[in-house]
Design goal:
The chain is of the alpha/beta class and about 450 residues long. The protein has two domains: about 20-50 and about 310-445, Aspartate Aminotransferase, domain 1 (Alpha-Beta Complex); about 60-305, Aspartate Aminotransferase, domain 2, CATH 3.40.640.10. It has 16 helices and 14 strands. The protein has a five-stranded mixed sheet with strand order 2-8-7-6-5, sandwiched between helices. Strands 9-12-11 form a three-stranded antiparallel sheet. β5 (about 175-180), α7 and β6 (about 210) form a beta-alpha-beta unit. The radius of gyration is 21 Å and the shape is globular.
Length: about 450
């Protein structure tokens, strides 16, 4: 099989800063053992997130030059709206500055105390917005999705039997969700067959179906590769088919919009869309810009086309699998099969001497930075609390940013870390915020 290369040429470069191990240890201490609090200039390879970290294309930069910055009725919004409707198919397109703003608007209108909102898995900001409203965020992913070693091709699927039982309990459910791909579960895809079945269940119970669409293009690629029925379809055709079964979507265009900022809430219901626009004006801006500049809207319209190119998606998924294989060959366990946007390392078998209450995944995050200047993120008991039952580290791949040589370096640092894993120490929290504590928490080594 020929090697899959980057389907682009590098036209502009940005220097990265090299630091010594002694410097990084001091930086880590000053950041309270929380890499979220480290200055980006002190990070060599930044795999904290794939959100807003993409390298934009020449086409996107060129589109920004024709951005219409009119407060109302911007032609840039018209282009953006037309592109979103072309791919996603929803009647109303409500722009926001990022995905969590769309979640906030939706939850402010529909969620509230005493209500429950099912999903395959809610990620951090979605869960926080649901719970901040007073609602309960309920995860109903299939059992294989909880097993990091399972090779099920669609581990992001929402369990239909669990959903039927849940909706049969008589709870007040203002809307139901599916997240594609399932970030919390390892960047795992959801099959189109599952989306169709889940849609029917929601509609049979009169529950609006909202898709968290952050990584819709990667999910479409997995469907093309793993569901034989859609092998001849283009990723765009698959995406259009996915959203045909939903009543709306929240979207962070900082992921599969190839943008550094942006999002939207898309809906079919006229009355709900009117309420959303009214709240948008209060919190984000006029409905034809929603907290975004016209140049951002232009770049995002181009990015939504580029993210669906087959050569890009093939390279994207292959890059993640390449790093996962390198780590597995060292002996480091990762969530199987590799996801679409990140490699997820299982920290518990790496550090069996560190109990969950001492945050083994956060220890791994700190070790990656201390030894190599690599920044990842904990997806476990620090982020979600002890009930999550796992401690993973996500190494997210910014789109079109790093080369194979960068990933080889990550593998070299991981090999050193693995060889000296017995020396790692647990951590304890010294400060935490009431919501999304992982962003700002202070920690220190356990004595």
């Amino acid at each position: 099989m020929p090697e899959i290369i980057e389907p682009f040429r590098i036209k502009a470069v940005e220097p990265i800063k090299f630091t010594t191990r002694q410097q990084r240890e001091e930086i880590l201490k000053n950041a309270f053992w929380n890499p979220f609090l480290i200055d980006a200039d002190d990070v060599l390879i930044d795999m904290l997130t794939d959100s807003g970290t993409s390298a934009m294309s020449a086409g996107q930069w060129g589109a920004m030059m024709v951005g219409d910055e009119s407060y109302a009725g911007s032609r840039s919004f018209k282009r953006f709206e037309s592109k979103v409707q072309e791919i996603f198919g929803f009647k109303h397109v409500i722009p926001t500055h990022q995905g969590r703003a769309a979640e906030k608007i939706l939850c402010s209108i529909l969620a509230g105390p005493g209500k429950s909102i099912p999903n395959n898995n809610h990620f951090d900001t979605t869960r926080a917005n649901v719970e901040f409203s007073g609602s309960e965020a309920v995860d109903l992913v299939i059992e294989e999705g909880k097993d990091p070693d399972s090779l099920h091709p669609f581990k992001g699927n929402l369990d239909p039997a669990k959903l039927r039982a849940f909706l049969g309990e008589g709870r007040e459910v203002p809307f139901g969700m599916v997240t594609i791909t399932n970030n919390t579960g390892g960047g795992q895809p959801v099959s189109l067959a599952n989306i169709k079945e889940v849609s029917k269940i929601y509609r049979d119970h009169g529950v609006p179906f909202i898709i968290d669409a952050c990584r819709f293009a990667e999910n479409a690629w997995f469907i093309k590769q793993r569901e034989a029925e859609f092998a001849s379809w283009t990723p765009k055709e698959i995406a259009q088919e996915i959203f045909r079964y939903a009543d709306g979507a929240t979207m962070s265009l900082k992921k599969d919009g190839m943008g550094n900022i942006g999002g939207f809430l898309a809906l079919n219901d006229d009355a709900l869309a009117e309420k959303a626009r009214n709240l948008l004006i209060l919190t984000e801006g006029f409905p034809t810009y929603g907290g975004l500049a016209g140049r951002d809207l232009e770049a995002l319209a181009v990015g939504l086309d580029e993210v669906l190119e087959e050569s890009y998606l093939e390279y994207r998924v292959a890059s993640v699998a390449y790093l996962a294989r390198a780590l597995n060959e060292i002996g480091i366990q990762t969530v199987q099969p590799a996801g679409g946007h990140a490699v997820y390392i299982d920290a518990r078998p790496l550090y069996p001497h560190i109990p969950p209450e001492q945050f083994p995944a956060q220890v791994l995050v700190c070790e990656l930075y201390r030894r190599g200047g690599i920044r990842g993120v904990e997806i476990g008991s620090l982020m979600f609390g002890p009930s999550v039952g796992r401690d993973w580290v996500r190494l997210a791949m910014p789109r079109r940013v790093y080369t194979q040589a960068h990933m080889n370096y990550v593998g070299e640092v991981a090999a050193e870390l693995y060889a000296e894993r017995a020396s790692a120490q647990g951590l304890k929290i010294t400060y935490e915020a009431p919501f999304l504590r992982h962003f700002t928490a202070h920690l220190e080594p356990v004595a």
